[in-house]
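User: Design a sequence. Structure:
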């Protein structure tokens, strides 16, 4: 492992400030439609205070390999548009009332308008990506979109049912980690050829960074859903259990709990409510079996694996920033 120092949050922000501002402008421009409601929904979602972690990964991947072209801005907007489209569809599927502390778009505009606006954002993202005239970029985005849709359909099939860890990791790879992975791979796809490694090697190494980071990100998200307050989350606490989703800490407790513990968890998953079993009772079961710690330890292991996967990159400011991101992902509170 390299002895290069890890960047600070300020150093990362300073490194990316101008590019992120350019991506915001590109997103606004790309989401400007002659149909006013599409523009309104897109702008509402864009102003919702997202972390922009996917564009950040694309920018850092490209910068680590010396890419200075405008493609990094255009594709940064593309991955954020794709992510935003998935949020619109997720809120409709989950019948969500809030997103990041504000009314979800579907509660404001209704399901019909929002599902079509989400479809439009998907197509607009591909239209913007087409400007690169790069078949590898399109191949990555098509495969990504298929996997995300498959992940959503698989999750719907499994709602209210018990799943094992293998099924859980397959789901979160498709729903979350795949987009992290592709964001990193897009940075490779638009970068100049390197003297120290082939494009195939870099695609594998940086893709692995994105995959591991994405898995860590989603595990932490799932833990926060169970443990953080509604005020911090900006949405109802324990939404996953209420929607019938078994996440890693819950799966761990189900495998280790008493018969009564398992029955309590099964009841919440089947009822999709805490009417018969309280949220606090589920938390007590998870804490008693060390299930929250187990999930966080797993997330930290994936975060460290992400760091290790980029050990061979040249020692640049972008690499220092990439070494910072896993720590941010595992220590955030929302």
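Assistant: Done.
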């Amino acid at each position: 492992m390299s002895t290069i120092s890890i960047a600070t949050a300020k150093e990362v922000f300073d490194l990316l400030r101008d590019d992120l501002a350019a991506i915001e402008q590109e997103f606004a421009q790309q989401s400007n439609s002659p149909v006013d409601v599409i523009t309104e929904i897109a702008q509402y979602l864009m102003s919702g205070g997202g972390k922009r972690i996917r564009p950040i990964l694309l920018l850092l991947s490209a910068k680590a390999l010396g890419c200075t072209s405008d493609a990094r801005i255009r594709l940064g907007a593309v991955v954020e548009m794709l992510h935003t489209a998935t949020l619109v569809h997720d809120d409709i599927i989950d019948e969500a009332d809030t997103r990041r502390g504000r009314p979800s778009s579907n509660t404001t505009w209704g399901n019909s308008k929002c599902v079509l606006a989400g479809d439009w954002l998907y197509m607009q993202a591909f239209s913007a990506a087409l400007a690169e005239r790069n078949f590898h970029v399109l191949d990555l985005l098509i495969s990504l979109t298929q996997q995300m849709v498959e992940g959503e359909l698989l999750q719907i099939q499994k709602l209210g049912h018990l799943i094992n860890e293998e099924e859980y990791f397959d789901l979160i790879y498709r729903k979350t980690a795949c987009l992290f992975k592709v964001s990193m791979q897009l940075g490779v796809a638009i970068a100049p050829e390197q003297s120290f490694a082939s494009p195939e090697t870099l695609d594998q190494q940086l893709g692995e960074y994105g995959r591991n980071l994405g898995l860590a990100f989603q595990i932490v998200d799932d833990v926060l859903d169970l443990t953080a307050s509604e005020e911090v989350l900006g949405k109802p606490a324990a939404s996953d259990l209420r929607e019938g989703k078994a996440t890693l800490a819950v799966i761990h407790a189900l495998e280790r709990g008493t018969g009564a513990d398992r029955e309590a968890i099964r009841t919440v998953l089947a009822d999709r409510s805490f009417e018969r079993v309280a949220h606090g009772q589920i938390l007590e079961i998870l804490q008693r079996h060390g299930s929250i710690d187990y999930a966080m330890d797993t997330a930290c292991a994936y975060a460290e694996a992400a760091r290790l996967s980029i050990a061979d990159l040249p020692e640049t400011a972008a690499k220092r920033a990439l070494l910072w991101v896993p720590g941010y992902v595992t220590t955030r509170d929302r």
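Strands lie at 98-99, 102-103. The chain has a mean pLDDT of 94.
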